[in-house]
Specification:
By secondary structure, this protein is an alpha+beta fold. The chain has helices at residues 16-21, 61-67; strands at residues 11-15, 27-30, 38-44, 56-60, 81-84, 93-97. A hairpin with a 7-residue loop joins strand 2 and strand 3.
Length: 104
């Protein structure tokens, strides 16, 4: 299980609304990384959104934190963590931790 801070150049999946429309990340899940360059993180503009398989973009951890410094508060969460916040200025809340449950 990967724990700790991912390297700043590791990949993060962001929904197309974050990548293309500048919407804030309001939901995140860290799965076990499948590749060395993967952070395991996936971020969406809403936790209840269902994204198409082609609806994600890949950014680096560094790019995401540059866009949204509040993500630095939770980027060190271990694999299996699910986080959410109400708005871009709100604190992140850990919703749960289950290393066996993949992101939906």
């Amino acid at each position: 299980m990967r724990r700790g801070r991912p390297d700043l150049d590791h990949a993060v999946q962001v929904c197309e609304h974050i990548a293309n429309e500048g919407k804030p990340a309001l939901w995140g899940r860290r799965n076990e990384a499948e590749r060395a360059e993967d952070s395991g993180w996936q971020f969406r503009c809403a936790g209840n959104s269902v994204e198409s398989p082609t609806g994600f973009r890949f950014w680096s951890v560094d790019e995401l934190i540059a866009e949204d410094p509040m993500i630095g508060m939770i980027i060190n969460s271990p694999s299996g963590a699910t986080v959410e916040r109400r708005g871009p200025q709100d604190d992140w809340v850990v919703l749960g931790f289950d290393p066996r449950k993949p992101a939906r």
